[in-house]
Amino acid sequence: MFQNKVTLTPQDILEKEFKIDTRGYRLKEVDQFLDIVIGDYEELFKMIRESEKEKEELLEQIVALKQEIRNLRTSIEIAKGADDDLNNNGFSSTGTNLDIMRRLAQLEKIVYGKDE
After folding, report:
1. Backbone angles phi, psi at 24, to 5 degrees
2. Could you say which of 2, 20, 37, 68 is the most buried, measured as most Cβ atoms within 10 Å of its Cβ?
């Protein structure tokens, strides 16, 4: 992923040798090389920022999917409990108004995502 965008490797930087003039290194040559290094670092930091953003988005998706799994498991448990309580006529053999109200409250929590 990074090989196509970054020009220099750490080894290239380490092994770079500049030609020496009478007063030191050739300024133009050093400036050109440093421009390449700066460009590479800018590209590297851009890639890091993009990776961090993608990581945050994926973490948000993970949290949302885990919540959805919890909600689905709760729905399955409620559905299994409702099936167990129903007799052949479709009426609850143990259901009271209070039991029905509790189930409705649980379903509202699932549908509207309210945790109390």
Report:
1. 130, -155
2. 37
Which residue type, as a one-letter code, is found at position 47? M
Q: Which residue has the tokens 């498991």?
A: 73
Q: How far is CA 86 from CA 6, 50, 74, 90, in A?
A: 67, 54, 18, 6
Residues across the chain: 116
Which DSSP symbol is given to 24?
A: E
Structure-model confidence comparison of residues 17 and 91, the more confident one = 17
Is there a contact between 85 and 92 (Cβ–Cβ < 8 Å)? yes
Tokens for 66?
A: 């885990």
Query: With contact defined as beta carbons under 8 Å apart, do 13 and 37 qualify?
Result: yes
Closest CA to 115 of 85, 84, 70, 50: 70
* Residue 106 CB partners (closer than 8 Å, separation 6+): 74, 78
- For residue 34, the Cα-to-chain-centroid distance in whole angstroms is 35
CA neighbor of 94 nearest in space, from 108, 81, 104: 81
